[in-house]
């Protein structure tokens, strides 16, 4: 059975290791191997984000070019984004912790695009609702504490003037047959869907376009977004810019298993940012997929498989102390720690993270405007 479907607008089918292998081949991306990992580690002053050493960000395009530039002291910038949605959950926010790590580590500018237009053209029809979601999502993302001087939020509807000017350059060099092939657009789709990819491609060259400085762009994204950046890589050289580089992730596991992605359509499968402490604990205890054994005896004797355990995974993504992570890993794997204890540790970690987030969120409300995209702030 081959029901795997991964496009920017639809993800379905079982996302196991085999599926990712297929996608890598189909999309033609490169795996992040140990040599590259060591290079990143060296550039990052000896540290790696858990998403890197745990293989969540597992593939790339031209990451070497970014590292070459960085090693030579040449700046680059980061670009990532989000299609606005209702309440955000952990699976939505965690990728942004990785982007923040990249920004902090390399001290670079970051553009975050909020594709309210895409949401309108592809999924929802209530613009007011989309705008509300976009606002809330921006607060959630910014409560991670992004650099105020160097972070630029592009809401497509708000920043249309800057974006549209450059989007026409992309559109002029992209044929309808390309978008049909790459995005699966058909003759019965609305014409906005065919144009939209130009809007998502613009931020991959907006800093060089506006400043006139030839610098590279590194884009962290989940693998379903790859089609946009394949097209970007074809078009940008024609416009006189570098092809963008990518660092590409798998989807984060849902609560109940390690193959589906966290989904807001089944509320019990995800931990929402506004879940209170009790709810977090209850969801973990009741629904979190466990790598532990069925009985206490077996667990003591054979130990757990932490790699497939939801609680261990989330804990490891939020804990910055690698030694602690290794200790928990060892204890859980050996059987000296039980599944319930693992869940309790994870619940504490998640609750601490969420409570910090909520505090920051209140503060950010006062200066969220400082992050708004403004060409004047891009003078590097
Ligand atoms: N299309 C993405 C989504 O629906 C949002 C997005 C825009 C994005 N630009 C991006 C995601 C760059 C990753 C990188 O979520």
Helix content: 40-55%
Largest sheet: 7 strands, mixed
Task: Examine the secondary-structure arrangement and name the CATH architecture of the domain at 267-363.
Answer: Orthogonal Bundle
Kindly provide the name of the CATH class of the domain at 267-363: Mainly Alpha
Descriptive labels:
380 residues, binds tryptophan, single chain, 11% strand, alpha/beta, Tyrosyl-Transfer RNA Synthetase, two-stranded antiparallel ribbon, globular
Structural description of this entry:
This protein has helices at 17-27, 34-43, 50-53, 63-71, 90-106, 116-123, 127-142, 160-172, 176-183, 191-201, 206-211, 226-235, 277-287, 296-302, 310-318, 322-334, 339-364; strands at residues 5-7, 10-12, 30-31, 57-61, 76-82, 109-114, 151-155, 216-222, 245-249. Helix 8 packs across helix 10 and helix 10 (191-201) crosses helix 12 (226-235). The chain has a domain at 267-363: Tyrosyl-Transfer RNA Synthetase. The chain has 17 helices and 9 strands. The chain starts with a strand and ends in a 16-residue tail after the last helix. A 7-stranded mixed β-sheet has the order 3-4-9-8-5-6-7. It is an alpha/beta fold and 380 residues long.
């Amino acid at each position: 059975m081959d029901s795997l479907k991964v496009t920017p607008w639809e993800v379905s089918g079982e996302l196991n290791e085999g599926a990712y292998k297929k996608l890598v081949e189909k999309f033609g991306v490169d795996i992040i191997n140990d040599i590259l990992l060591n290079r990143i580690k060296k550039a990052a002053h000896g540290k790696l984000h858990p998403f890197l050493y745990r293989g969540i960000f597992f593939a790339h395009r031209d990451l070497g070019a970014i590292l070459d530039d960085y090693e030579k002291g040449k700046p680059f910038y980061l670009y990532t984004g989000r299609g606005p949605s209702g309440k955000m959950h952990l699976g939505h926010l965690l990728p942004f912790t990785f982007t923040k790590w990249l920004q902090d580590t390399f001290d670079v500018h970051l553009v975050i695009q909020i594709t309210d237009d895409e949401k309108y053209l592809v999924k929802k029809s209530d613009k007011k609702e989309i705008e509300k979601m976009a606002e809330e999502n921006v607060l959630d993302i910014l409560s991670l504490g992004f650099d105020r001087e160097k972070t630029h939020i592009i809401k497509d509807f708000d920043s249309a003037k800057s974006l549209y000017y450059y989007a026409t350059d992309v559109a002029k060099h992209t044929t309808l047959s390309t978008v049909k092939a790459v995005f699966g657009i058909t003759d019965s789709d609305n014409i906005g869907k065919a144009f939209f990819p130009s809007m998502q491609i613009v931020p991959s060259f907006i800093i060089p376009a506006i400043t006139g400085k030839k610098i590279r762009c590194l884009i962290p994204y989940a693998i379903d977004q790859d089609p946009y950046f394949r097209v970007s890589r074809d078009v940008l050289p024609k416009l006189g810019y570098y092809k963008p580089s990518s660092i590409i992730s798998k989807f984060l596991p849902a609560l109940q298993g390690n193959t589906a992605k966290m989904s807001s359509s089944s509320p019990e499968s995800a931990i929402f940012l506004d879940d209170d402490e009790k709810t977090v604990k209850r969801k973990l205890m009741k629904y979190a997929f466990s790598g532990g054994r069925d009985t206490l005896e077996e667990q003591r004797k054979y130990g757990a498989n932490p790699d497939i355990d939801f609680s261990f995974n989330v804990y490891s993504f939020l804990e910055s102390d690698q030694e602690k992570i290794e200790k928990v890993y060892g204890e859980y794997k050996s059987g000296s720690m039980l599944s319930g204890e693992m869940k309790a540790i994870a619940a504490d970690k998640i609750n601490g993270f969420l409570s910090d987030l909520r505090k920051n969120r209140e503060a950010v409300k006062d200066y969220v405007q400082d992050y708004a995209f403004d060409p004047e702030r891009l003078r590097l």
